[in-house]
Amino acid sequence: MPNPVAQLLDAMSSTLAALREALSSAETPVKATRGKKVTRTTAKRLTKPAASPTAPVPETAAPKAPKKAKVPSARLAFQGQYMSAIRGLSAANKAKVKKVLAADGVEAAIALALSKKKG
Asked: CA dihedral defined by 86, 91, 93, 94, rounded to 10 degrees?
């Protein structure tokens, strides 16, 4: 019994070959002009071969300078330390740390949160 997939592939390849013949014999390629009149310049543009995707792109712009590494600001560094320090604390301990944050600052709040985490 012949394989139905093989039959389908054979039919598709013959159809594809017929389409290639029909399109290669056409004088102008079929392209959507959206109802516009085809002029000489449009016809020339339509008949030009498409650029191959592997064609090299000419470099016209100067190479860019390498980007500098961004240094995080001290505020963001403290924020990250604070958020990681209070992450595993209970609600009561978080409230205590927030009071220290408001009264004494970020460094003191981080130190308190780290001490609460350990004990």
From this structure: 40
Pair of tokens at residue 99: 């009071």
Q: Cα(114)–Cα(107) distance, rounded to whole angstroms?
A: 11
Question: Of 89, 91, 80, 82, which Cα lies nearest the Cα of 109?
Answer: 82
pLDDT of residue 4: 82
Task: Answer yes or no: is pLDDT of 31 > 60.
Answer: no
Contact 88, 64 (CB under 8 A): no
> Which runs of consecutive H residues, i.e. helices, occur in the chain?
4-25, 40-47, 74-86, 91-104, 106-118
Checking if the pLDDT of 34 tops 80, the result is: no
* Residues 7/13/19/20 CA torsion (nearest 10 deg): -170
- 46 within 8 A of 78, measured Cβ to Cβ: no
Residue found by looking up tokens 């004990």 in the block? 119
**Is 90 exceeded by the pLDDT of residue 87?**
yes
Question: What token pair was written down for 33?
Answer: 């002009």
